[in-house]
Amino acid sequence: MIPHYYQHFCPVKILSGHNAVSNIPYEMDILGCKRAMVVTDKGVVDAGLINLVREAFADSDKEIGCVFDEAPPDSSNRLVNKLAKLFEQEKCDCFLAVGGGSALDTAKGANIVISEGTDDILLLQGNEIIKKDLLPMIAVPTTSGTGSEVTKVAVIYNEEKNVKMAFASDRLYPRVAVLDSRMTMTVPPKLTAATGMDALTHAMEAYTCLQKNPIDDVFARAAIELVRKYLVRAVENGRDEEARLGMANASLLAGIAFSNSMVGMVHALAHACGGVCHVPHGMANAILLPHGLEYNISGIPRSIAELSGMLGGSIEYMEEKEQAMVTVSLVKNLLGRLSRISGLPVRLRDAGVTEDKLPAIASAAINDGAMAFNPVEVSYDEALEVLKKAY
Ligand SMILES: NC(=O)c1ccc[n+]([C@@H]2O[C@H](COP(=O)([O-])OP(=O)(O)OC[C@H]3O[C@@H](n4cnc5c(N)ncnc54)[C@H](O)[C@@H]3O)[C@@H](O)[C@H]2O)c1
Ligand SMILES: [Fe+2]
């Protein structure tokens, strides 16, 4: 069904290939930039990935002005304020973010602070609050999950209030996204599994939530089919180039889908698990996805049933709600397989959540922005019930 009204926007140039990073200086030239600030974290540096980026600059007239490797696991408000000052001191003219969602969002956050001329990012939280054009940003994801390289969103942790805050604006899209299979080969199996499940959650929530539309359905479907084909392969053999590039594309396609269609209760609950108990984002989504899908069957059995085909399930001659339950079972099967081969937890109790924290998570979740896009309303009691099932 075509919605009464919808919008779709993705202004990001995409480069994908086994050696795509080598084109970064050329892209800087097109953007009119000379001196990049690399934003990354220690794990990415230790994996040797910044060396691959440096090699790309070796024969060019473009330069790396500074490598900032202190992006924290969840980008934080104080840190982006600090990074913005460093960018100005080092006289850089663009951001080159190399890392997972945390490094990419840290660069996005600092870019907001610089371009808006503020010294406190918290003043700009919310939807379309940013009014000035941002400096060019090139994003090189080193995990395949968040899709931040093609989204209009930055998720920043508010250290004073212990909550994750979302900043969303059409100005926040990076200018170029660079997918290079070499950049994700060093991701350990458990993190490959968790981030891959984040991508799957983006695609499935985009396909089932309130801003669902025919264009994002195409991106979401393509992403889910790539996850089905490549996620287990990438976890089993991290050096599998084809699987790594396949998952990088899955994550990007899912990112395009959810940046427009938005996500729902699974992300709302996962953000709350991150805020209250510091459960890593992908891990929280992985655990909660089957439970969120099952909860939503009462409102949108058709859309959830359709997902089963994308995961390779057969639903012929079944009633709609039974078909939708096949989707839930297939997601649980995938999660079980990932858990066996990588140690990814399948329950919140094994992911650092204690039972006494569930009420705090439920109340943070019902106030999370993503909840507004869920196709079925979720009360505090219902959120708590879903959390107990996942616990
Ligand atoms: N902006 C968006 O659209 C968006 C969407 C979803 C999630 N997020 C945010 O993204 C963050 C999570 O990002 P993430 O899941 O990519 O994890 P991450 O960026 O926090 O990275 C996790 C760990 O993996 C390491 N790592 C990254 N790449 C590696 C590689 N190639 N080899 C070895 N180690 C590597 C890092 O050093 C880090 O220790 C959360 O803060 C979440 O809120 C943002
Ligand atoms: Fe996510």
Key terms:
2 domains; binds nicotinamide-adenine-dinucleotide; 14 helices; 391 residues; three-stranded mixed β-sheet; alpha/beta; globular; binds fe (ii) ion; Rossmann fold; six-stranded parallel β-sheet; 9 strands; Dehydroquinate synthase-like, alpha domain
Element layout with pairings:
Elements: E1 13-17, H1 24-31, E2 35-39, H2 42-46, H3 49-57, E3 63-68, H4 77-89, E4 94-99, H5 101-116, E5 126-127, E6 137-141, E7 153-158, E8 163-168, E9 176-180, H6 189-208, H7 214-236, H8 241-261, H9 265-277, H10 281-296, H11 301-310, H12 320-342, H13 358-366, H14 380-390
Parallel strand pairs: 1-9, 2-3, 2-4, 4-6, 5-8, 6-9
Antiparallel strand pairs: 7-8
Helix pairs in contact: 4-5, 6-7, 6-8, 6-10, 6-12, 7-8, 9-10, 9-13, 10-12, 10-14, 11-12, 13-14
Bound molecules: nicotinamide-adenine-dinucleotide (NAD) and fe (ii) ion.
Looking across the biggest beta sheet, what order are the strands in?
1-9-6-4-2-3
Structurally, how many domains make up the residues? 2
CATH architecture grouping of the largest domain? Up-down Bundle
Shape: globular
Low-confidence stretches: none
Measured as a percent range, the helix fraction is: 40-55%
Structural Rg = 20 Å
Percent of residues in β-strands: 5-15%
* Strand segment count: 9
CATH superfamily of the largest domain: Dehydroquinate synthase-like - alpha domain
For the record, the CATH class of the largest domain is Mainly Alpha
Mean pLDDT comes to 95
